[in-house]
Amino acid sequence: MSVLNPKLVLIFAASALALAGCGSKSLNHAPVEERMTRATNPSVPASAQPGASAPVAPVKQPQGFENAGKPGYYTVKPGDTMIRIALENGQSVQDIARWSQVDNPNRIEVGQVLRVVPPAGDVVIKPVTKPGVVAATAASAPASAASSVTPAKPAVAEGDINFIWPANGAVVAGFDEVKNKGLDIAGAAGDPVLAAADGRVVYVGAGLRGYGNLIILKHDNVFLTAYAHNQALLVKEDQSVLKGQKIAEMGNSDADRVKLHFEVRRQGKPVDPAKHLPAR
After folding, report:
1. Same domain, yes or no, for 203 and 270?
2. pTM
């Protein structure tokens, strides 16, 4: 029987141990160590573990979304401004902001739902016969609340207003539902612009593109009138004005010539002013 060389035995034994150690480290040790690290170290986020899904942030709904599609509400679209929404719904910016609980009317977002009709019991402001004074009447308020105010007696029935011409110049562009939502009246810079009927000023400014320096009057719950392209604005918001009162001076702001652009809106929809003005 042959005798193995002791040196060879030691070499074979060392090689076997080295191979066994390498196999153990590559097949078993590393995965076990990773699993133990995650199990014993709570600082490792769950989303970092294999197969874990990232947390989903809750979707923020626009203000008033629960009223979308309901009668009396309007959903803000791209490009909308509060003044345009108010004009096209026959309301004031301040009223819509109050009904919709909007703190800053200059900051509205697409998808936001605004109330554009007064809620039951809301106080309706009507113009009276003296500039700068208004009287409040409740639309459907409790008797105790209504008894605390003196309702104004309108000179004409609701929606039946006798308008006058707001300027003396010739009409240079007539009404067109698509191209021109009012009348364009010629004149010289500085010519007086007159209130076409008693009313309350609900907008003064230049925030509506294409209108320049603009004034909007609310006459009752049916009619608004708009006066655009002025060079000077002589009234303030919430001021009451009388028929024939000078409210502005004619100009060419945001226009190609000096003119007054005059609109009559019935419940927010533009109608032909010529049909509501006396014959010349």
Report:
1. yes
2. 0.68
